[in-house]
Write a structure and sequence with these properties.
mainly beta, 403 residues, 2 domains, twelve-stranded mixed β-sheet, 51% strand, Immunoglobulin-like, elongated
Length: 403
């Protein structure tokens, strides 16, 4: 993954500026994210204990897992006490027959870091659903419908199990008319209803490592997020999905940025301008503090300089132009070493990539780091009082070291 931090540079008179609804049931889901976005596409890995049809027959499920929904009597296949019943009818509305519809849209869920309280958003989608029911109630035990495709079927004895998925985000409707021999009024047991999900984050380098929690309410009933159609009775009702997410990105970078994600900072002379009345200071500098962490080697370099001098960025007189005046950027972080093997103490950055490695094998953790911006030797002697100087640099953090 790559993180760009823009730094706006300006000088004025020798100043350098660089909730969930109530529900009867809870479904607890745990998942983890580790790595970088190029390798994972930001997708979480489910760590919840798998259950349901996709746990019994994972080869028939694209996600490779499913989680049984938390309703009463939904954990087994007891035909005398199932989760619910569907009453056979031979009327025309498809909702009167075997019917399973659900909201397979992408949903944004806010989660918070349990230590810091920082909030982020994850993307959640119910990809597929499965259920067990009395076999031979529908032709060939095959479901179809709008935005629906059947992934697999397993059956033996009294029960049959089916897993169906949506073709794309949106509402999925999977259904089939009852077989003609099925007697009107017969009650078809339904149980072992489960779902698989997709969960992802964006810009993982902005997530501080830690545990995040959030809740997503799921409604159940006619026209709601999960819908078993007409003539259904059972324990199925609204429930909350409670997420506990462990996030370990291979890089974490957080600057206090302004509009457009740009860091605006002012360079000052040693001790402040009052100490230098009537004379020009030897240099101007600014210490930009930020939070930084890495679990593996990181490449850092400068680019997108408005003005450049050698291998660094620069400022110019915004009124009269003229020569570019160089500014060095130096990184200090006691928890990483630079490519010379030494601790990063005022390690100079340039337009050429430098590799930094965590000191500890388990990573550096999230630590306070410093980016020192300082004019090069002799720069201040070229400045004129009352003139405005400015420029821009971009600091690039890249965890994809092998590419």
């Amino acid at each position: 993954m790559t993180k760009w931090i823009g730094v706006a540079l300006a000088v004025v008179t020798s100043v350098f500026c660089v909730g969930a609804a109530q529900a009867s049931w809870d479904l607890d889901i745990t998942a983890s994210y580790k790595g970088n976005v190029k390798k994972t596409s930001g997708e979480f890995t489910n760590t919840t204990k798998a259950s349901g049809m996709c746990a019994d027959f994972p080869s028939q499920c694209e996600q490779g897992f499913s989680i049984t929904l938390p309703w009463d009597h939904n954990w087994g296949r007891d035909n005398n006490a199932p989760m619910g019943w569907k009453t056979v009818t031979h009327t025309n509305p498809m909702r009167d027959h075997m019917y399973l519809a659900w909201d397979s849209d992408n949903h944004k869920i806010q989660v918070h870091n349990i230590r810091t309280g920082a909030t982020h958003v994850v993307q959640f989608r119910m990809m597929s659903m499965s259920m067990a029911y009395e076999r031979f109630m529908i032709p060939d035990n095959q479901f179809n419908g709008d935005n629906c495709r059947q992934l697999g079927f397993a059956g033996g004895g009294y029960w049959g199990e089916v897993v169906v998925a949506s073709n794309q985000p949106g509402r999925a409707v999977c259904s089939r008319y009852f077989e003609s021999p099925a007697k009107t009024g017969h009650r078809v047991p339904i149980a072992y209803v489960s779902m698989s999900y997709f969960l992802a984050l964006d810009k993982p380098w902005t997530w501080e490592p830690g545990i995040y929690k959030g809740t997503f309410p799921v409604t159940v009933g006619p026209g709601k997020m999960i819908d078993f159609g007409n003539n259904f009775e059972g324990s199925a009702g609204d429930f909350n999905i409670n997420f506990t997410l462990t996030v370990t990105p291979d890089m974490y970078v957080h600057f206090n940025t302004g509009a457009g994600g740009v860091v605006n900072t002012e360079l000052q002379p040693p001790g402040g301008w009052l100490r230098w009345q009537g004379k020009m200071p030897p240099y101007l500098s600014s210490d930009v503090q930020f939070d930084f962490g890495a679990t593996a080697p990181i490449k850092i370099h400068l680019e997108n300089c408005d003005h450049a001098v050698d291998d660094t960025c620069a400022i110019v007189d915004l009124q009269r132009g003229g020569s570019a005046l160089g500014v060095d950027a130096m990184l200090t972080d006691n928890y990483v070493t630079d490519d010379s093997g030494k601790r990063a103490l005022n390690t100079r950055l340039s337009t050429k990539e430098r590799v930094f490695k965590p000191v500890n094998e388990g990573g550096s953790g999230s630590q306070r780091a410093h980016l020192l911006l300082r004019t090069r030797n002799g720069v201040t002697q070229q400045m004129q009082r009352g003139h405005h100087y400015g420029g821009h640099m971009t600091v690039v953090f890249d965890s994809d070291v092998n590419n």
